[in-house]
Amino acid sequence: MKSIKTKNAIVHFNDNVYNELNAYIKSTNPSKIFVLVDTNTHDACLPKFLSQVESGDIVVEVMEMPEGEDHKTIDICTGVWEAMSEYYADRKSLIINLGGGVVTDLGGFVASTYMRGIDYINVPTSLLAMVDASVGGKTGVDLGNLKNQIGVISEGSMVLIDTSFLETLPSNQMVSGYAEMLKHGLIYDDSYWNTLINFENLDGSALNEMIYDSVVIKNKIVTEDPTEQGLRKILNFGHTLGHAIESYFLGNADKTPLLHGEAIAIGMLLEAYISTKIAGLSNNEFKEIEEGILKTFSKVEISESDQKIIIDLLQYDKKNSHGKVKFVLLEAIGKPKINCEVNNDILLEAFKHYNA
């Protein structure tokens, strides 16, 4: 697969990954290499990865963090910063983030802020991170239960996508990443959407091509609008309500936390329904979206009392301005509309339809 040039980095795939990494290490000669993993990727991915790295005389230090969204916090960042200081990391050190979206988000933030910024490379090991989290330079951590409230936009030097790491994933994590791929089709390319909803086997050989297509779509959007002043906002379709739902289920002891993609799937269903009321999405296309998503994602009961709290959480969404909640909606599949305002009656109507 041909490498993809982003604004400030390059995304390499499969056969090119380790040759490109080793060439980069040789040419830049970092003072030290720090590999950030979580408890899952430490066992499942690190041995293979280190066996491919040609570091020569450069010291390689491994830093391990707990796995899971609830550990994507500033406290974990502090622990990583302190570990790097103890091992005398300097401005010529390199961080390699080997993991899913939590590791790439947090590791990118750590690198972008340590000594005001050092080089980093993302090596995504989950489908979600390959098609979304590792590409585009968004880094950061959660603030309590609020998703990605603290962070910066700062691209690493490269992204290395080795799809063999997907063999280490449980099926629910594969499905979680699939939600972001569906989103790319809905906001950008109706033919890609049709390919996705008619693809029955997430482990098939065609998956590599679809991962590539998703990265191409995201890169086109991010290259045109790197700091999310306009077009890049379309990547948030399903995320306004989806992030609020994810935050609520994460922070409520009586609820089973949802994976990111599971929450985003709900958000896309709700926001597609809202699109029929506000943005002109046809009922036929809405039904197509609903059937396409529900083929893969199970529904989750969201009670009326849950809904009110979720709606209150919308005030923390990062697209908001001047106290107004701003949604990304669909005029049609592949044709998004940004900066849409939605009143609470329509939000509650969407939840009612979803539950029914």
Number of DSSP strand runs: 11
Shape: globular
| Through-space gap between termini | 44 Å
Number of helices: 14
CATH architectural name of the largest domain: Up-down Bundle
At the first level of CATH, the class of the largest domain is Mainly Alpha
What do these coordinates show?
The protein has 356 residues and is of the alpha/beta class. The chain folds into 2 domains: 4-169, Rossmann fold, CATH 3.40.50; 173-355, Dehydroquinate synthase-like, alpha domain, CATH 1.20.1090. The chain is built from 14 helices and 11 strands. The protein has a 7-stranded mixed β-sheet with strand order 1-2-9-6-5-3-4, with helices on both faces. A hairpin with a 2-residue loop joins strand 7 and strand 8 (146-150). Helix 7 packs antiparallel against helix 8, helix 7 packs across helix 9 and helix 11 (260-278) crosses helix 14 (344-355). It starts with a strand and ends with a helix. Keywords: Cobalt, Lyase, Metal-binding, NAD, Nucleotide-binding, Zinc. One of its GO terms (molecular function) is 3-dehydroquinate synthase activity. Catalyzes the conversion of 3-deoxy-D-arabino-heptulosonate 7-phosphate (DAHP) to dehydroquinate (DHQ). Its EC number is 4.2.3.4.
List keywords for this structure.
356 residues, 11 strands, globular, 7-stranded mixed β-sheet, Rossmann fold, Dehydroquinate synthase-like, alpha domain, alpha/beta, two-stranded antiparallel sheet
